[in-house]
Amino acid sequence: MKRLLSLIIIFGMILGILCSCKDGQNDKDIGTIEFNEDYYDYSIKDIDLPDDPQKINDVLMAQTVGDSLYILETVSEENSVSVNEVKLYKVDGDGRITNQITIGTDNVLEDMRPVIYNGSLLLSSYKGVLSFYNIESGEAIDHHELSSENLSYVLPVNNGLVVSDCDTVTLYDKDFNAQGSVTDSFKFGSGNCEFWEDGGDIFASFIFDNEIYRVDFDNGELIKLYDTSNLPLSFENTYGKYIVGNSLIYKIDVFSNHMTQMANLGSLNVRPPKGSCAKKWFICDDSQIIVAYIYRGGKSEIQILNKSDNYVPSGKTTITIGTIDHVSDDLNNAVYEFNSTHPEYQIEIVDYYANGVYCVDDTTGNYSNAEQRAMLDLISYFNAGNMPDMLYSESFDYEYLGRIGILEDLLPIMNSDPYFNPGDISDPVWNALTGRGHCYAMMSSYNLQGYWGLTSYFDDNDVSLESLLQISENTGIRPVIHEVSRTLAYDAIGRGRYDIVDKMSNGHFMSLQDMNSVISYAIKYGVAEWGDESTLEDYDTPLTSKLFLTTWWNMSLDNMELGVSYTYIGFPSVSGSYHTATPRLALSICSDSDHRDICWEFIKSTLTEEYQRKYYMDSDDLQYNYPVNKTVAEELLEQKITDDIRREDLRRAMNSIDTVYYRETGLWIIVMDEISSYYTQGRSVDDITESMLSRIDLYVKENYN
To answer: Which CATH number is associated with domain 319-446+584-650?
Structure first.
């Protein structure tokens, strides 16, 4: 209840109070957020559609009619832009497919969402034509040629249809006579608009501008009702009046000026997709939510969530995971697996961004400063007695949170667990995580960050800034891809900051001479801002062009030519290079948690061979998602990498890891401010060197004890 009241107070501070949309006032904010203390329960059914895995299948519609659910799916040949056929499945209340029909489309199905209207299936069979099909037999019944072309949206309404194309939305009566229209090519042309009917009026939401309008067909205009850009929600997943967030589904009520929390997916234990896929939501009404998973192999799968009228508390012990990031499939899978095998516990994800606790106010235009303020506010919120049991985010500096007492040191827990074997974890990863005598977060997978170079130039992967510049001088090749100067400086300073802090002498982060070398290098070979023509050209240029010696990590696999050997050198600094692993699924235990043992059991479950093999061997993003389990990592290299030279290059890269990197906004802000002043204020390298070192020394003293 305390957490609930806190959320209501916070939202009350953020959001203003609205008048009813019926009063004609525009440019208002949604003013009241209604939170339900007890969430309604949903029963969940899974349906595997009988697809041909050799074809490309896509779910375009899931709509309930009476007691049956109808699912429409298109079927195409691989690498074809034409639709070969349309399949319509009828599903009963028990989730069984009771009927399946095929509808020919003459390969001209337009890109619109089909609907069922008055018992018939409506498809756009060619430009400007709506065709009607019998939903039981698939036979063509009728068709109507409309004045609109490029139909993108059809909404059944009371006694008619609302039809939208790339310029105009038109209201038709049941006899297909136009009753009014609104033209706005800018808004409707994006295709990112949603319509719904409420109380006899038609409303529209536009994803790209976070605005809600009433469509006034009588006067041919859009009347703006709400500007929702200040809400701590992303409108990227908007379905009419429903908004799907990380773990919550909201419903907009334009008459009461409420946005009601309709469902908490985190408490439902909804099974995530089985592998890499596209996800689509079809929210029929408050009582039924449909999720479609369209897998890259061609199969489609449906989940049906039916709302229960009477919520019955589960009686389970709730374990919370706090986050400020998009919840990855990795985490969703881990939560689902644990909840399914531990019936006495329920792990729930708390999204501090969605509920407004973590709010990045970027009104000043300086996002990094705003992000730092938001993080400090979140820490204050935790210290006020609102800690979750665990934390998950790629944006947390776990080392800092551990130093200030928010996180538990996992090393004693792991060392005292007779059922956990550190030897199962890749040796370099384990040493990087625990080598400083503590471990505030454990990761189940990671990506490699740093620079790569041709092995013909870098037979040794420990490359200092001095040696990099020496090789550049000897070969006449620029040392690094064109990159923003502040990034080059931060890479040489911040990536290995823990090691540099440990080696501090005389109270200085590094010597004045070393700092000067870093800044000189960054300014000489960097550019003022990203988007410079040279940076864009470089990112499309392979290392074998020999225009530069090293290239940034996210091009490592894309631009690696088969048969050529590459060396992962990490981030060169004045004392050598740091080979960093950035966590993909990092989990920590909060010091105030009453369920430390259960939290560790959950974290440990993500490190097992079974879990890692199940979720990482089928990964599409291999270069960004390496498992920490040494057995699975080796299996992945052997089974996924077919080129012998590339396999050995990646094995050497994975074995070279010596640092786990967590974001640190405070240090980044100092580097960004100082390096940027070279371009904005014309400051000298020597001047920047002295002020940057002074600021970093003070920052380290205040933040690193």
So the answer is: 3.40.190.10
